[in-house]
Amino acid sequence: MTESLLRVDGLWRRFDVSKPWLNRVIEREDRQFLTALADVSFSIDRGETFALVGESGSGKSTIARMIMGLLAPTAGRIWFDGQDMSTLSPDKLRELRRRFQIVFQNPFASLNPRWRVGAIIGEPILTFGLASAAAVEREVARLLEIVGLSAQDAKKFPHEFSGGQRQRIAIARALSSRPEFIVFDEPTSALDVSVQAQILNLMRDLQDQFGLTYLLISHDLSVVRHMATQVGVLYLGRLVEVAQARALFDSPQHPYTQMLLDAVPDLTLSGVRRTPIRGEIPNPISPPSGCALHPRCPIASTRCTEIVPTPVVTASGIASCLALLDTTEVIKN
């Protein structure tokens, strides 16, 4: 069995969105909390691409930032290569930190406009002591060529590049610390369609070349179909389905997954056909009782308004839907 490189176990994240104390006293209001993530668990095996999908506000980027240590979990644990990151000393965590990196959504905002490209890519190399100062220039040139740019580009500033080229620079910076795991947070959503394909192909080539493991955050299911080996579907902070990519696209088990797939445009002889997702995502401060999807779900019953679904084993993975309980095995914690 392949060893999991990353494991997320029972992850919760709540944000205090209360009004200031004096306003609450005057208006006689209690504190309010937004639950961005609720009991999320999954694992990513070495060399695979795990994609997280869902509408805006479902918690995808919150997970990415907690894995990177940019946000602390309210509860739950994150394990990297068998090590519980919450128990590590600062020195051990810094040593581990070299092994995972992130590429953000907007290449126009993720690069320091005052630094030349050579300094941007070279900084992690120097920070982690991976090469001498004299050798950094050669390493930067090598990384630029790996991502399809020129060694001469090291002398330029970010504003001298197109969006796709900037994202290549961001990927080169991520590679500079010689990581094993990279989080891609909507890496192509700010790019033109033709450029998106180039970046995705580059990601695939780099994964094969260096044996990388990816967490891909995306709302674009065509990107997920092209890239992912396993998919997790998030709805209002909860994982409602996890399955191998091919099985999920061929036979989705959860009604929300089916709604997402139905909303993807279908190019046919009669034109572009799609079924818009019904309703709006509920307010996460005061979510619906029971299954949070029930106000929008086409197969919801009365019990869906009262019971929070328990994850169950399906033919292709796991899913959390009361309609599956009668024919599948409940996952025991």
Explained architecture:
- Helix content is 30%, strand content 24%.
- By secondary structure, it is of the alpha/beta class.
- It has a nine-stranded mixed sheet, with helices on both faces. A four-stranded antiparallel sheet has the order 2-1-4-5, with helices on one face. A two-stranded antiparallel sheet has the order 11-12.
Give a quick rundown of the structure.
This protein has ten helices and 15 strands.
List the helices and strands and how they pair.
Layout: E1 4-16, H1 21-27, E2 33-45, E3 49-53, H2 60-67, E4 75-80, E5 83-84, H3 90-97, E6 100-103, H4 117-127, H5 133-146, H6 163-175, E7 181-185, H7 193-210, E8 213-217, H8 221-227, E9 230-235, E10 238-244, H9 245-250, H10 255-262, E11 266-268, E12 271-273, E13 312-313, E14 317-319, E15 329-330
Parallel strand pairs: 3-8, 3-9, 6-7, 7-8
Antiparallel strand pairs: 1-2, 1-4, 4-5, 9-10, 10-14, 11-12, 13-14, 13-15
Q: Which descriptors apply to this entry?
A:
333 residues, alpha/beta, nine-stranded mixed sheet, four-stranded antiparallel sheet, 15 strands, 24% strand
Report the biggest beta sheet as strand number plus sense, adding barrel if it closes.
Answer: 9 strands, mixed
Strand content: 15-25%
- The SSE string, one letter per element, is EHEEHEEHEHHHEHEHEEHHEEEEE
Mean of all residue-level pLDDT scores: 89
Structural class, please?
alpha/beta
Report strand order across the widest sheet: 6-7-8-3-9-10-14-13-15
How many strand segments? 15
What characteristic shape results from the CA principal axes? globular
Query: Helicity range of the residues?
Result: 25-40%
